[in-house]
Each structure stands twice: as structure tokens, then as C-alpha cells.
């Protein structure tokens, strides 16, 4: 697929949304297919599906991610030290 982008702002207002939009725009300019999830504390957000995470060649986790991602542990897009960090910090 390309890139799966997950952004989150500790304040949960607009930082995560703006970051996701900028990264999506940059991916589009480079001709890279991307999907995004902007975690917001003040509103509901559309979460990435397990299928979207599994199909990603690269996963960008930006900010203080608040949701558990069991699908990350099965994904080939994350590995090595990042897999261990994901497991300990994100409860993947």
C-alpha cells in the first residue's frame, strides 16, 4: 500500500490533525499512497483498520499515541528495536 500514518497531540486539539494532513499532502506530492489516523482528544476519529496496518510498507507513529495496536505486532512494516518499543510503550 505505502504508508500508514498515526498522529496524536498530547493536548488533543488540532496538532495531530494538522500533522496528519501535512504528511498526507507530502506523500501525495511524492506519489506515495498513504492512509492516516489523527487521534483527537476532543472528537471521534477514524481509526486505521488492521488490514490497512498490515498492508503498509511503512508505519509512521507521530506524537503520544493513545490507542493499542495489536495489528502492528503482526505487520512486517515494523521490526527489531521498534517492535520491542511498540510492545512495551504502546501495549501492541
Structure description:
With 92 residues, the chain is an alpha/beta fold. The model has no long low-confidence stretch (mean pLDDT 75). The chain has helices at residues 15-29, 50-55, 70-74, 80-89; strands at 3-8, 34-39, 58-63. It has a 3-stranded parallel sheet with strand order 2-1-3, with helices on one face. It is 39% helix and 20% strand. The protein contains 4 helices and 3 strands.
Structural class: alpha/beta
For the secondary structure, the number of strands is 3
Number of helices: 4
**Which percent bin holds the helix content?**
25-40%
Report how far the terminal alpha carbons are from each other: 21 Å
Proportion of residues in extended strands: 15-25%
Radius of gyration: 13 Å
Order of helices and strands: EHEHEHH
The gross shape turns out to be: globular
Main sheet summary? 3 strands, parallel
Q: Round the mean pLDDT to the nearest integer and report it.
A: 75
The stretches of 5 or more residues where confidence is low (pLDDT under 50) are none
The largest beta-sheet arranges its strands as 2-1-3
Compact summary:
Helices cover 39% and strands 20% of the residues. With 92 residues, it is α/β, with parallel strands linked by helices. Strand 1, helix 1 and strand 2 (34-39) form a beta-alpha-beta unit.
Notable characteristics:
single chain, 92 residues, three-stranded parallel sheet, globular
Summarize the topology:
Elements (H helix, E strand, L loop, with lengths): L2 E6 L6 H15 L4 E6 L10 H6 L2 E6 L6 H5 L5 H10 L3
Amino acid at each position: 500500500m505505502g504508508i500508514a500514518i498515526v498522529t496524536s497531540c498530547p493536548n488533543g486539539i488540532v496538532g495531530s490533525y494538522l500533522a496528519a494532513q501535512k504528511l498526507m499532502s507530502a506523500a501525495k506530492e511524492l506519489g506515495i499512497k498513504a492512509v492516516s489516523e489523527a487521534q483527537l482528544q476532543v472528537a471521534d476519529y477514524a481509526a486505521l483498520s488492521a488490514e490497512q496496518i498490515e498492508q503498509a510498507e511503512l508505519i509512521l507513529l507521530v506524537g503520544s499515541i493513545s490507542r493499542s495496536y495489536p495489528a502492528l505486532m503482526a505487520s512486517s512494516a515494523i521490526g527489531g528495536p521498534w517492535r520491542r518499543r511498540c510492545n512495551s510503550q504502546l501495549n501492541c
